[in-house]
Amino acid sequence: MTGTQHVVSALMRESLMDRRVIAGTEAPVRRILPKLNVIQIGGQSIMDKGQSAVIPVLDEILANQADYTQVIGVGPGVRARHILSIGLDLGLPTGALATLAAKSAAQNAYMVSCLLASQGFVYLEAPFIVQLLPAMLAATRGAVFNGVPPYDLWEHPPALGKIPPHGSDAGSYLVGEVFGARKVILIKDVDGVYTADPKLDPAATFIPEIKAAELMAMRLQTLPIEPVVLELLTRSKLVKSIRIINGLVPGNLTKALAGEPVGTLIHS
Which residue ranges of the chain lie beneath pLDDT 50? Predict the structure, then answer.
């Protein structure tokens, strides 16, 4: 037909399952928001402790917002564990459990956004983060989001058990990776990664810095971070490290934002 044009594409005749083709797609990735800092507030570790833990963390976030643009991911807490327990007892599949667990994180995120509303922070639902976050940061002081990624029924079945592997640690990391964030900081109630649970084993050794692959190879019985985040780090394109800090210690977030050696740094 006269005037017909063909759109030229390097992939138009290729199978996207071909390993050679996939390898050929490696290319530099643009950082969308290079000054962004993603701060994840743990559900069980911080939110469940109530006002005494939450308010100081939010105050420190606000104190740093003028110097460091921050968005806040929030995790679920004990309520999610309760609903997961019931769902497991009823035999629900992983995808259904993931849908249920995300509700608790959304409630926590909404509470944080209410506490920060007078300071110009807004709440963003998970499906709208990519579309609205840049605009919201230009128009408002900051944003709060549900840290649990919206895989919902499409959550990946874990290698062991049925607990959804992608929680708020993974969701907050992925937001940072997508936008090319400056830092991803996970706020917990422990100083970082230990060789054992320091609350149960006084002989546990603190690990200030470690590669994700090395930490995976240690096969520790317990971690203050979702194991899937370590796997994601080994494949990272933009965010090459995350830092775990104790949010119950005043000043730790300020130090982490400034790049000081606080908590545990896990890098790719």
Answer: none
